[in-house]
Every structure is written in C-alpha cells, then in structure tokens.
Design a protein that fits this description.
Shape: globular
Helix content: 55-70%
Largest sheet: none
Mean pLDDT: 96
Number of strands: 0
Strand content: under 5%
Order of helices and strands: HHHHHHHHHHHHH
Structural class: mainly alpha
C-alpha cells in the first residue's frame, strides 16, 4: 500500500493539525499514532465481531482459544462447530450466531472480500450490515483498519466518545455528531489520534 493511501500520513497529519488545534495538542503531547492496520478478509472481520462490546484483551483471548481449536480458521470449519464447542471456546451464543451468519454469507458468495476494496464506503456498509450481527461499529472498524478508509468515525465507540468529552466542552450526542462532521474528510485520522490519546493516557500502549 502506498504511504499516501494510509490513514496516517504526513500530508493528512499536517492538514488535520493545522485545521484543528486539538489534534496539534495531542500530537505535541503524545506524538503520532501508529497506522493501525489489519489484513482484509474473513479472519479480521471475525475478530472484529468478537470485539463487539468487550475489551480487546478479552476478544483476543477468545479468538486465540477458537483459532487453536480449529484446524483452520475458515467459514466451513466455523459452521462445523456445535453450540457446545463454541461455548468451550468462550464464544457467546449471540456471537456464535454472528460468526455462523458471516460464514454462511461467505460460502454462499453473498460476501466476497476481494470486491469490498473496489466499493465506496457506503456500498461496503450496505453489504456488511446486511449480515446478521454486523452493524455500523463493526463496519466502521473494518473500513478503517482493513480498507484504510479515510473518512470514517465510529460514533458507537466508547473510547472515542469518552476522549472527546475529556478534551472538549462537547458533551451531548448532537454536539458530538456536529464535532465529528467538522473533521471531514479526515475523520479516520482524527479517530486514530483520539484512540492513541486514550490509550497513552491510560498506559495501555
């Protein structure tokens, strides 16, 4: 991937920190966030599903347990698992349904990962959210981390909302939506800075 196509790059950092002093302050205090990136495909999207509403550490532990149990982390192998096997791998009943729905969509060729990188963000959102268990937050994370989409802001992300409230006078849902709209067309980079601040302040990175 070309440097300029990454979310974190010099030109966009210059634009964001010049236009919004908040991000200049974060940069001066904490530095530049890493360009968090994950491979495109089934494994990454499955991991993001496991990350819904739990800590990253818990999700990673559950993924490792499931991955170690399977001969191969693939849609066909996921669909072979019984409810009992899923529970033994610490996968909740709800997330088991979501992983199965994703697996079935892939096997039915309703979802073809190679095609997502050629779609607009709105087309990717429409495609992914048609699958049970995949909502806007999961789609946002896939768009940002896997497809490096530059203008995404996951409004359902607790860490991001917490950080906005910590660093600004914006406290209401309406105010937060207005705040993030003002960050276009670099909302993904802004989110990376806010996540980085959140993690650094809590000594998690």
């Amino acid at each position: 991937m070309r440097t300029q196509s990454r979310i974190v790059n010099k030109l966009d950092i210059q634009k964001l920190t010049t236009s919004h002093k908040l991000f200049l302050k974060i940069k001066e205090k904490n530095g530049i966030p890493p360009n968090w990136q994950r491979p495109e495909g089934f494994v990454s999207l499955s991991k993001i599903i496991l990350e819904q509403q739990v800590s990253l550490a818990s999700a990673e532990a559950h993924f490792i347990k499931l991955n170690n149990y399977l001969p191969e982390f693939s849609p066909s192998e996921i669909l072979k698992l019984t409810d009992e096997e899923m529970r033994a791998c610490q996968i909740s009943r709800q997330k088991s349904k979501y992983l199965r729905a994703l697996s079935q969509s892939v096997l039915n060729k309703e979802l073809e990962f190679d095609s997502l990188s050629r779609m607009s963000s709105s087309e990717v959102r429409s495609k992914l959210t048609s699958i049970k268990g995949i909502g806007d937050w999961t789609t946002d994370i896939y768009l940002m981390f896997c497809l490096q989409s530059k203008d995404i802001f996951p409004l359902g992300d607790v860490a991001l909302i917490t950080t906005i409230k910590e660093l600004t006078n914006v406290k209401t849902e309406v105010g937060i939506i207005r705040f993030t709209k003002n960050l276009k067309p670099l909302r993904s980079l802004a989110a990376y800075f806010l996540w980085y601040y959140y993690l650094k302040e809590r000594n998690r990175i």
